[in-house]
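FORM 12-B: Structure-to-Sequence Request
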């Protein structure tokens, strides 16, 4: 039997669908207040048999911060897919991210070691990778992490959560880690990377020329399953289809929506002002800020991510980003 954490998220819901479609018996960890209806909605995007597949999930209540509930969740489990994480670039969520992403992973790794599972797969992020060294322009799985770099709380939490997995490996855990770039796919449109689509749909006027990696959520799920089926252990893999400018992604989404895309270039000075104004709005009008200092600075970063390792290991081919955007928009509410 397979255990999936974070099953109600973008990656987790797609992973549940793929595992169940292949006939696997799956148990999914959920918190008491989790919205599992989103999982059913995801299933309807890809199957006319969505209700039957959804009913076959064995849901179990638990919490990443409750080691005893993890022990119960792991009873009779062979393989574990760890997708649960808090993604935020807000300072207020710093402690919660450390608790959920780091302590939660530590608890799960310890429980997996005690349960003697067969194999463990963790969803990390390119945020846990280093920056290219001088004279290089591409991030690989071996690019060293430097604590001197300016890093978001999320980035630090994912790096530290990976350390918990590598510590588990030293203690006998068979594990693989995947580091997806920005994940595109139909999800909860007001949160995570799916918010990109909603932001453009509302009439985004500005773009930047920063470059980063993007990957389709279906590729993330498929590659995780293939890695778990393989003999590969104790390795990490970047999951990245293409490196694209923000301008290209925003305009491609707008074109798919049939609306005008952003036409004004926002230079670094403009985005620095924007995040400060957003902060003042939050302080004085108690309105949540959707644009942070980390957002502003990453909007101008230029980073290329290599996908060579996963392509060679699994002979894997990624969905092109233009197709990923087109397919995602089929499910966007108009």
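FORM 12-B RESPONSE
SEQUENCE OUT:
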């Amino acid at each position: 039997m397979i255990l999936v954490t974070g099953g109600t998220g973008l990656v987790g819901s797609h992973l549940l669908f793929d595992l169940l479609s292949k006939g696997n018996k799956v148990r999914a960890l959920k918190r008491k207040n989790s919205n599992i209806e989103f999982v059913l909605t995801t299933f309807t995007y890809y199957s006319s048999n969505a209700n039957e597949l959804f009913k076959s999930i064995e849901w179990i209540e638990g919490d990443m911060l409750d080691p005893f509930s993890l022990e119960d969740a792991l009873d009779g489990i062979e393989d574990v897919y760890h997708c649960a994480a808090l993604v935020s670039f807000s300072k207020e969520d710093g402690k919660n991210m450390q608790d959920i992403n780091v302590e939660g992973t530590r608890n799960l790794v310890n429980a997996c070691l005690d349960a003697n599972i067969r194999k463990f797969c963790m969803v990390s992020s390119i945020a846990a990778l280093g920056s290219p060294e001088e004279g290089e322009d591409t991030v690989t799985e071996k690019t060293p992490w430097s604590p001197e770099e300016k890093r978001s709380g999320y980035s630090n939490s994912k790096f530290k959560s990976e350390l918990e997995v590598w510590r588990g490996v030293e203690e006998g855990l068979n594990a693989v880690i995947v580091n997806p770039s920005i994940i595109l796919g139909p999800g909860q449109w007001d949160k995570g990377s799916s918010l990109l689509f909603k932001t453009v749909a509302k009439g985004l006027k500005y773009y930047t020329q920063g470059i980063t990696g993007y990957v389709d959520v279906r590729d993330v799920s498929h590659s995780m399953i293939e890695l778990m089926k393989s003999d590969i252990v104790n390795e990490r893999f970047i999951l990245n289809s293409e490196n694209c400018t923000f301008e290209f992604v925003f305009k491609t989404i707008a074109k798919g929506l049939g609306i005008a895309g952003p036409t004004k270039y926002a230079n670094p000075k403009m985005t620095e002002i924007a995040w400060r104004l957003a902060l003042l709005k939050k302080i004085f009008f108690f309105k949540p800020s959707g644009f942070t200092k980390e957002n502003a600075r990453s909007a101008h970063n230029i980073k290329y991510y290599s996908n060579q390792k996963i392509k060679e290991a699994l002979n894997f081919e990624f969905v092109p980003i233009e197709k990923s955007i087109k397919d995602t928009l089929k499910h966007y509410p108009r």
